[in-house]
Design a protein that fits this description.
The longest helix is centred in the last third of the chain and has 16 residues. This protein is 33% helix and 16% strand. A 3-stranded antiparallel beta sheet has the order 1-3-2. A two-stranded antiparallel ribbon has the order 4-5. The protein has 5 helices and 5 strands; from the N terminus they run βααβαβαβαβ.
Length: 125
């Protein structure tokens, strides 16, 4: 379906390339976090952001670290999901990809001191 993802796809996870998915969003708009949110809103697909949010901030300056990659991890545990789960996830990724041009980024509205990728809260500006 032309979905930008890291190749080759591994046995543990599929990594979606959020930077290519949303070229119109800067890293300061948290494209991988936005993609994970859109997937959850679309079909309840839970995904993990692996980009600027996970990279955190510099302890001294407070500035964001800017990693080279903005990825969304779709983890695939063994013997847990059915084919219907895989189909729903694929359909959701395609649907979100089809609407990618209208996607908006996010801003942080709450950020804890530690582990922001687990506890931060986001909103669309």
């Amino acid at each position: 379906a032309g979905i930008p993802c890291v190749q080759p796809i591994g046995g543990h996870a599929v990594y979606l390339d959020a930077r290519t998915f949303y070229p119109h969003l800067s890293q300061d708009e948290f494209p991988a976090q936005a993609l994970a949110a859109y997937l959850y809103e679309d079909a309840g697909v839970r995904a993990m952001e692996r980009g600027i949010v996970s990279a955190g901030r510099d302890a001294e300056t407070g500035r964001n670290h800017y990693p080279a990659l903005e990825l969304v991890r779709l983890t695939i545990p063994r013997r847990v999901y059915t084919q219907a789960h895989m189909d729903l996830t694929a359909e959701s990724v395609i649907a979100v990809h089809d609407e990618r041009r209208s996607a908006r980024g996010l801003k942080i509205v709450y950020e804890p001191r530690y582990l922001r990728f687990f506890q931060a809260r986001f909103a669309r500006p």
